[in-house]
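Journal club prep — side note

Before the paper discussion, L.F. wants everyone to see what a predicted structure for a comparable chain looks like in token form. Sequence:
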Amino acid sequence: MAESPNSANSKPPTLFPLPNASQKPSGMEGMKGERIREKRDVEYVELGCRTVLNHCNTTRMPDVWTINPYRGCEFDCGYCYARYTHEYLGFEGPEAFARTIFVKAKAPEVLASTLKPQALYKRPIALGTATDPYQPAEKRYRVTRGILEVLARYPGISLSIVTKSPLITRDIDLLQSIDAHADLTILVSLITLERGVLEVFDPRAPSASERLKTVEALSLAGLDAGIHCAPILPGLTDGTGTIEELCRAARDHGSCFLGAQVLFLTSTIRARFWPLLAAHFPDHLPLYRRLYASGLNAREGYRRLVIGRVREIRARYGLEGLSRRTEGREQPEPAWPPTAQLAFDLEG
């Protein structure tokens, strides 16, 4: 396996170059690059959009609508595949994804004016597939809430939300309204309870305890919420004891399910993940070279072993993926549902 291009001996990436006007992603209005706010080392830029619902049909994420209220994510997770979306805007280096956040401020209005109701019932909707919809920017801009207010008008939809943020509890009233007449599932992303691993790979995300309390609050509100353990990191979070600890905590905090998926490594993920692994867990480098020698997925035998381990442990804790509303109906495995650490076409 080739070493990361961002090694210590390589030239450091250029942060925050001005977006190239000739590189306008499909579905975007002319991007003016207008700064609307700066916070600490994070810059917010308003980004126009002509569409909000994006049809995704890939092997990992077949035939779903995806919605991303923001582009970029302040949580800066070291395994996030979505950093490539900033490359389409002319940015270089993996750091830019967490330092320049594009805000689709008009997305609720665009969704309301362009939505064809019949389209909503053809396929499920996944909110937060390439960015966390409740990252810190949402507290100020409320784009995600605005989108949910539009979707709340349409009974019978199937909606999933993925987040690491306790901010989602702000919208419990709205989520309950949607849940009353729709199929709503909330996935709180948490890969482990191991603090040392989270400090390296989830450096800006809420703590494990905050995320578990978020699941508990959503569950107490009568919502279907659970833990989305994606990705599992080989040698770091795949041990029986580690998985059991997470399952136990999930159950104790009212989780309806626990889903898991093993890490996959695209070239964009490697640019960020590889240096972190080398700096903090160098003894694991040989393992990763072996597992990912043939491509972006770990060897099939390893994936089967780990997912089988997860299934066996979560079954003991009653986390097979049963919804309160549809008791006895199993959910898809191993990913639950197709969101978060998944590959799909560029979002608009």
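L.F.'s comment for the group: The mean pLDDT is 83. Keep this in mind when we get to the figures.
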